[in-house]
Write a structure and sequence with these properties.
Oligomer: single chain
Largest sheet: 8 strands, parallel
Helix content: 10-25%
Strand content: 25-35%
Number of helices: 9
Strand order of the largest sheet: 2-5-6-7-8-9-10-11
Number of strands: 24
Shape: elongated
């Protein structure tokens, strides 16, 4: 018996927005009122972060209506409250206005949780001491109060690392450890690990989803992990592929320099999104200057006519993720319910055969790469990705109720149980149905030149000798021919 592979409930590609806002809420709040157009624009992203201040302020002016409005525009959106944990812009003696930032400041002051350099100056980077247990416990209580607002789908704790390593001064250098309460760097980092893991555990125990930007270190028990500087901060694109293919929710963030829709920006957008599409769980991607305004690229949303969609109404257009094949060293092909993505992590262009006819999307940001042309062979440039769509076929009845188009599909798909190939014939024909493996070898002939009348037909797929894996079917009726894909497992 052959069972068709069950697809994940997630729809790819999954996009993220990490654009920041001011403590007064700009650009979503302008001149003391909500900018509805700006909020609607941000709501296009399935996953996004907003700084807790001012939307989740517990004192002073608050704007909880903004996350609520985002959910109204996009009920599927996951909105995370953002907290910068490694450093803060305010300093001792510079009390922020009443807000979440003021509460954060008060915790730092009350427990003396600042980090200083040996010369007595407050550090510009990594100036918050999470090794201070009393401070960490107080911040946990402050963060738990955000849950009562019921405006967030979780919290994003940025730079949540066990070691202070992202600094031009070198790992954990230029810190007055004695003033921070530690004998040495090992003692401080050990305390950070214990305290940060405890914060996450307490938040999750209260039902709060927690994402962290953990760099090259991971704090246990988080719901999702973020890495920045794709194609730069990571050792290599190959490492990024390995990372997103491990179980868990992964958020891969890329940055670009220069014009927003330059050829290079478009390439980076495709590449980071393509790599994230190789993930098995909730892997997602964001692109933009450092927490600045994010662009909207061709691959983000594609409508039924295969055209790039700027409204965001068709995010997740690839549908459920299916199997992933490494077609050659450094080159990956991921199949989806409605298309495929080819990812080339090598330093040279690669020629990839998809066997099944697919279409490039019809783009506006990059119409050269996204030309709408179809094929079974595609050239993917170095460190780039290519997003492809399956042809959309709709049955249309002809005179007398007979179908006017020739088409075929595997059904149920995805499902468990006996499989079948269903097809429609616009006229009487001799029909041949075969299954192939990815190398093009015939593995089963289901029909061989059978004479059949016009109409709808079905041929069962019950050959238990087929090994689990990816297969293709081809239905030939006279001079007509169509193809499709089938994934099987025991």
């Amino acid at each position: 018996m052959i069972a068709l592979l069950l697809a994940s409930a997630l729809s790819f590609p999954l996009l993220c927005s990490s654009q920041s806002n001011s403590s007064q809420g700009a650009p979503l709040i302008n001149n003391g009122s909500i900018d509805t157009a700006a909020v609607r624009d941000r709501a296009r992203w399935p996953r996004l972060v907003l700084d807790i201040a001012p939307f989740g302020n517990l004192r002073g002016t608050a704007w909880p209506q903004v996350p609520v409005l985002i959910h109204k525009f996009n009920p599927r959106a996951q909105v995370l409250g953002y907290v910068q944990t490694n450093c803060v812009w305010f300093t001792p003696g510079s009390l922020p206005a009443p807000s979440f930032n003021q509460d954060y400041y008060n915790c730092l002051m009350h427990f003396n949780a600042w980090l200083y350099s040996p010369n007595g100056a407050l550090r510009d980077e990594w100036n918050v001491n999470w090794g201070n247990k009393a401070f960490a416990d107080s911040m946990t209580k402050l963060l738990l109060r955000q849950k009562a607002l019921k405006i967030w789908d979780g919290l994003f704790l940025d730079s949540w690392c066990q070691a202070i390593e992202w600094t031009t001064e070198g790992p954990n250098s230029a810190i007055d450890y004695a003033r921070a309460g530690f004998a040495n760097v090992q003692q401080m980092d050990s305390a950070r690990v214990v305290n940060m893991s405890a914060v996450v555990s307490k938040l999750r125990a209260a039902g709060v989803t927690v994402w962290t930007n953990s760099g090259l270190e991971r704090i246990a028990h988080t719901d999702g992990d973020v890495r920045e500087g794709f194609d730069a901060g990571l050792t290599s694109p190959a490492q990024a592929v390995d990372w997103v293919r491990t179980p868990g929710n992964h958020w891969l963030k890329a940055e670009y320099y220069g014009a927003q829709y330059s050829a290079e920006a478009c390439r980076i957008a495709r590449f980071v999104l393509g790599v994230s599409c190789l993930g098995t769980d909730g892997s997602s991607a964001a692109l933009g200057p450092d927490r600045g305004p994010a662009g909207w690229y061709d691959e983000y949303s594609v409508d039924a006519s295969n055209r790039a969609d700027l409204t965001g109404a068709n995010t997740g257009w690839l549908g459920a993720g299916l199997d992933t094949v490494q077609v050659s060293p450094g080159v990956w092909l991921r199949w989806f319910e409605h298309g495929a993505v080819i990812v080339n992590t090598t330093g040279s262009s690669q020629f990839v055969w998809t066997w099944l006819q697919l279409f490039r999307i019809k783009g506006t940001r990059d119409p050269v790469n996204n030309s709408g042309q179809s094929g079974t062979y595609f050239v993917v440039p170095a460190r780039d990705a290519l997003f492809l769509k399956r042809p959309t076929v709709t049955a249309v009845a002809g005179p007398g109720g007979l179908p006017s188009r020739f088409m075929a599909r595997a059904t149920p798909n995805p499902a468990r149980g006996d499989g079948a190939i269903e097809y429609t014939l616009p006229a009487d024909a001799e029909v041949t149905v075969r299954l192939f493996d990815p190398s093009g070898r015939v593995v089963a002939t289901l029909l061989d030149g059978a004479k059949q009348p016009a109409g709808e037909h079905r041929v069962a797929v019950r050959d238990g000798r087929l090994a689990p894996g990816q297969y293709f079917y081809r239905v030939r009726a006279g001079e007509l021919e169509t193809e499709g894909r089938l994934v099987v497992l025991r």
